[in-house]
Design brief:
With about 400 residues, the protein is an all-alpha fold. It is about 85% helix and about 0% strand.
């Protein structure tokens, strides 16, 4: 799309030529990006309410029922009139004589007009899809394509801004860095908030929003991009200030809280998975199958209405497992590696104790995920992550012993 191409060019501009930009130019760029984020914020989707969707849907169905009733009455009246006129003007014998002629004419017309009929069928299918989409948009209360475009733009803009800032961090003032961090925080917050609204996402889905997906519509990529961008820039801020002899303790505290937040979320997601299925791998497989197959049934709405508890459990399990997998990936490929480059010797005893507790909880959660949720192909990555994690636990323990 045009938006995607434009943002790709902006990203290249920032990465390749950002070094030549003055502070004033960077300020103008960030101001423009802030404005773009505001204008492409998918407010209509994020602020949707289930009761409003049901109310609009009920209103349309009542209107349709009234229209169908009128059409049926008109059709019956018309058919009766035609039937009476036909009986008056034609005898049964006349109709029998005309039958071979009509059959031959119809066969010839069918052969000659097959191409036209195929085209009309294609046009009719497109028109039917367009009608369904317009109806769905009336029920949802927003334009589907516009909303999807807004979400994509937000995702691409987050990535472009992160790349540009990481490459030319030294060109930005502390005030500009804080503004960039606010953008990332906002992106992460609204995406995480929407992803937690599983019932709303289900209602949006069954009423036509991104209904071609094999899973509930969500902002998972936005959430991950926003979170990883936050971590990357927070870490860069801490590292840059420390290397250049500037005050970095505030950045260290903020960065530490962010990293612990991610590990806390991972521990909570695994805990919820455990509450749903425990160590029962057979139940896990059943829930996975239910979420991936039955939820995608053609008669989706009827399935959900008749099996609310069963499907709701499967959907919640599926979302929590996806959460745990994505957070595990961030922890293993990002956070644990950054822990090696962070000096925790200057954090308070309270923060150090929080780090120790969080690392131990993460270790327990990773062990559960390895034993219950993973397969043989993932075992090596789990072993490596647990080894790194246990190393950090030991370092924090030694630091605590030194202080005591």
């Amino acid at each position: 799309s045009l938006a995607k191409i434009t943002i790709q060019y902006l990203k290249q501009l920032l990465v390749k030529h950002g070094e030549a930009f003055s502070v004033e130019t960077w300020e103008q760029i960030i101001t423009s990006i802030e404005q773009m984020f505001k204008e492409t914020y998918p407010k209509s989707m994020l602020e949707s309410r289930i009761e409003d969707i049901f109310s609009r849907k009920e209103g349309l169905e009542n209107h349709d029922n009234q229209d169908n009733s009128k059409i049926t009455e008109e059709q019956q009246s018309g058919e009766n009139s035609v039937h009476e006129e036909s009986n008056k003007s034609r005898t049964l014998e006349d109709q029998k004589k005309d039958l071979p002629i009509r059959q031959e004419t119809n066969l010839s017309a069918s052969k000659n007009n097959s191409i036209i009929q195929d085209r009309r069928k294609s046009d009719n299918e497109k028109e039917s899809l367009a009608i369904v989409r317009r109806r769905n948009e009336k029920v949802l209360g927003f334009q589907i394509d516009k909303c999807v475009c807004q979400c994509v733009v937000q995702l691409l803009m987050t990535n472009a801004l992160r790349e540009g800032v990481e490459h030319h961090f030294e060109k930005l003032t502390p005030e500009l860095i804080e503004r960039v961090l606010q953008i990332m925080q906002h992106t992460y917050n609204f995406a995480k908030g929407f992803n937690q609204e599983i019932e709303l996402r289900k209602v949006l889905w069954i009423n036509g929003f991104m209904c071609d997906l094999k899973h509930l519509p969500g902002l998972l990529k936005q959430e991950i991009e926003g979170l990883t961008s936050l971590i990357a820039i927070r870490f860069k801020y801490y590292q840059y200030n420390k290397q250049h002899g500037k005050e970095y303790r505030d950045q260290l505290d903020t960065l530490t809280r962010l990293l612990l937040h991610v590990m806390d979320r991972f521990e909570e997601a695994v805990k919820q998975v455990n509450e749903i299925c425990g160590h029962d791998k057979e139940l896990i497989n059943q829930l996975r199958k239910l979420a991936s197959e039955e939820v995608r049934a053609v008669n989706l709405e009827r399935e959900i209405q008749e099996n609310t508890d069963r499907l709701s459990k499967a959907l919640h399990y599926h979302e929590r497992e996806r959460d745990s997998n994505n957070l595990k990936s961030i922890i293993c490929s990002n956070i644990l590696l950054k822990f090696n480059q962070i000096d925790f010797s200057e954090v308070s005893n309270e923060v150090l104790e929080n780090i120790s507790q969080c690392l131990n909880k993460t270790s327990s959660s990773l062990t559960y995920a390895k034993e219950v949720l993973s397969d043989a192909s993932q075992e090596a990555s789990f072993i490596e992550a647990l080894s790194l994690l246990n190393g950090h636990i030991e370092k924090i323990k030694q630091l605590q012993e030194q202080r005591n």
